């Protein structure tokens, strides 16, 4: 209608001269402005619609790709087999056995790989020009109550001997704490020969069976001489004992180590103290006859009448008078090399779980 009116108006003014054009614009200025506004609005609406639909399409495609990717990951995750450690270890063991069978060179498992090892000498047999201890000077008494199993208690005894020598102290025969795990009330004298232990170390450390009377009445914890594993770091260095324990020892004349589990390190460590620790472990700690007798019977049955002359020295140290004797009635065979058999009598439920046995 608007265009028709404009056409009619233009038809009316065609025969007229140009002087009437201004009159026409004044009469139709609202219509022209409306046309421009309508055209601009249409362009704006078109731009908005294009933007909206483009954004919707983009999000739709990306969500489709994400869902497809998740589906692919889900499918891949479902298809991916679960790792079975037992089967994997079994395959590795089989591969190792096959590879070993096809090896050309023959390896002797019992052959000593290092020639220098044959020249090694026991640490306890070494002598050093200087000694850390000062004979005649005594700073007090050291008591030890060791926890853990037999091996942990043995380590604690050897460490106690070394610490007593380091601090120039007298060592009271160590006590063993009762454990709810082991349920073993045995003390030092039930396992090791006390007199032999004290006699073997008499030139290195002064050892007594119990505290003197004037120190027995003291409340060790009240005077601050009770030292637990929280007071000494694990595998502590000798300097830690000199800084922490020695002042207490010189002040109160007695200290009590409670627990004492692995409280003395190995490196760096003075060679003289290490020699003393080895002497305690391999020479001074000798089992009581009852244990030696059982050990002799076990060794005799394990070896099945095969014996080597080099083993007699070790057997003598461990078993004493109960060392198996070579009888003419028993057919002992000389062997070219000495071998070792480790017998572990403790295979508990937690070990079964770790081994993944069915």
Automatic annotation (TrEMBL):
- Which domain of life does this protein belong to? Eukaryota
> Do you know which Pfam families this protein is assigned to?
O-FucT
Please provide, alphabetically and separated by semicolons, the GO molecular function terms listed in this UniProt record.
Answer: glycosyltransferase activity
What InterPro entries would the database entry show?
FucosylTrfase_pln (IPR024709), GDP-Fuc_O-FucTrfase (IPR019378), GT106_glycosyltransferase (IPR052272)
Topology in the lipid bilayer is annotated as:
Single-pass type II membrane protein
Pathway given in the UniProt record: Glycan metabolism
- The protein in question is named O-fucosyltransferase family protein
Please report the organism this UniProt entry assigns to the protein: Gossypium armourianum
């Amino acid at each position: 209608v608007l265009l028709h009116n404009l056409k009619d108006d233009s038809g009316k003014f065609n025969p007229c001269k140009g002087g009437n054009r201004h009159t026409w614009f004044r009469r139709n200025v609202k219509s022209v402005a409306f046309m421009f506004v309508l055209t601009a609005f249409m362009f704006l609406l078109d731009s908005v619609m294009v933007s909206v639909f483009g954004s919707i399409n983009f999000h739709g495609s990306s969500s489709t790709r994400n869902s497809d990717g998740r589906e692919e990951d889900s499918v891949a995750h479902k298809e991916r087999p679960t790792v079975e450690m037992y089967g994997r270890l079994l395959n590795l063991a089989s591969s190792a056995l096959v590879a070993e069978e096809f090896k050309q060179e023959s390896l002797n498992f019992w052959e000593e790989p290092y020639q220098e090892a044959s020249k090694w000498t026991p640490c306890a047999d070494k002598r050093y020009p200087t000694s850390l201890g000062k004979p005649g000077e005594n700073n007090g008494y050291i008591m030890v109550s060791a926890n853990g199993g037999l091996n942990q208690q043995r380590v604690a005894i050897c460490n106690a001997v070394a610490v007593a020598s380091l601090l120039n102290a007298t060592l009271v025969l160590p006590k063993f704490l009762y454990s709810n795990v082991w349920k073993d009330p045995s003390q030092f004298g039930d396992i090791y020969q006390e007199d032999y232990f004290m006699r073997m170390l008499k030139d290195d450390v002064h050892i007594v069976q119990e505290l003197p009377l004037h120190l027995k009445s003291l409340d060790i914890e009240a005077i601050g001489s009770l030292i637990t594993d929280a007071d000494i770091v694990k595998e502590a260095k000798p300097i830690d004992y000199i800084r922490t324990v020695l002042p207490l020892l010189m002040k109160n004349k007695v200290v009590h180590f409670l627990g004492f589990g692995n409280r003395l390190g190995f490196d760096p460590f003075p060679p003289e103290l290490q020699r003393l620790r080895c002497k305690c472990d391999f020479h001074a700690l000798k089992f009581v006859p009852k244990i030696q007798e059982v050990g002799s019977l076990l060794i005799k049955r394990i070896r099945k009448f095969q014996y080597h002359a080099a083993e007699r020295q070790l057997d003598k140290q461990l078993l004493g008078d109960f060392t198996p004797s070579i009888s003419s009635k028993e057919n002992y065979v000389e062997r070219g090399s000495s071998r070792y058999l480790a017998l572990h009598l403790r295979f508990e439920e937690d070990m079964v779980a770790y081994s993944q046995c069915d």
